[in-house]
Amino acid sequence: MKSSVIVFPGSNCDRDVAVALERLQFKNSMVWHKETELPKSDLIVVPGGFSYGDYLRSGAIAAKSNILSEVISAGKKGALILGICNGFQILIECELLQGALLRNSGLKFISKDILVKVQSNKNKFFNKYKAGEVLKLNIAHNEGNYFTNKKHLEELENNELIPLKYCDKEGNINLKSNPNGSINNIAGIFNKNKNILGMMPHPERMADKILSVEDGLGLFLSLMN
Amino acid sequence: MKFAVTVTLKKDVLDPQGKVVGQTLKNMGIKNLNQVRQGKFFEIDMDEKDSVKAEGQVKEMCEKLLANQIIEDFKINKAE
């Protein structure tokens, strides 16, 4: 499997993702945002961080960078794209994913471990998990409060396009287990074809037992399937 | 030719910053305050004499970059 991790000024999770991918024998390339050509890749990762200092809106400037037009056309051709945290914000700003990520409802930057429930495993990204499995992942964001219109929300819910929702230890999805005000506790969404995933939690931070748990590893393993 | 552009969150999108600012102003004793919406302000200077053309370009800037139209509205005013 060949992967590319896109690097912007201000990206800070790019190397963590690369380490997780390389551990699983992905042949990975780091691709600088000024590049105009994308190496041939089965997976493109838009990593977390604060691209361009979050100027204007998180992800807004990165969405107009050279390499993103390549990422957009690859995504439309069916390439697998994973956007994590700021990467999710960038995929939203470049309209590969619909909706918006607003400021957290509590107005605070949240950096902590949270729990998410796998809603569906019938896709390329979560097939190594069981549906209903509760994962411990980490979030670190200021704008992770997902919002979309009623029609799109119904489309997401009815077509298994919400793979992850914030939950508690027992797997209950409710207001109490919602860290940022995200509509329907959404932690990640797919596009219609399920080849593009955006998620606020960081799977790459939970991919090595030395650091924490390995709950995020399954996502990268799923992609190899 | 200068333009003043304001970008604010749409009416039905929660504006937590505006809410906190509004609540603080109420706490400071301003009783007749209805609400505060917080936004962004851009001053755009164009090297263009044709005001219709320039305004059209500023509108395009708003649509393509300055505002996220899913959650934000924009207003364009000619500054001079």
What are its keywords?
heterodimer; A: 225 residues; alpha/beta; Rossmann fold; nine-stranded mixed beta sheet; two-stranded antiparallel sheet; 5 helices; 25% strand; B: 80 residues; alpha+beta; Mth169, Chain: A; three-stranded antiparallel beta sheet
Task: Describe it.
Chain A is of the alpha/beta class. Chain A has one domain: Class I glutamine amidotransferase (GATase) domain (Rossmann fold). In chain A, 20% of the residues lie in helices and 25% in strands. Chain A contains 5 helices and 11 strands; from the N terminus they run βαββαβαββββαβββα. Chain A is globular, with a radius of gyration of 16 Å. Chain A starts with a strand and ends with a helix. Chain B is an alpha+beta fold. Chain B has a single domain (2-46, 67-78), classed as Phosphoribosylformylglycinamidine synthase subunit PurS (Mth169, Chain: A, 2-Layer Sandwich), CATH 3.30.1280.10. A 3-stranded antiparallel beta sheet of chain B has the order 2-1-3, covered by helices on one side. In chain B, 14% of the residues are buried. The interface between A and B is medium-sized, with 16 and 10 residues.
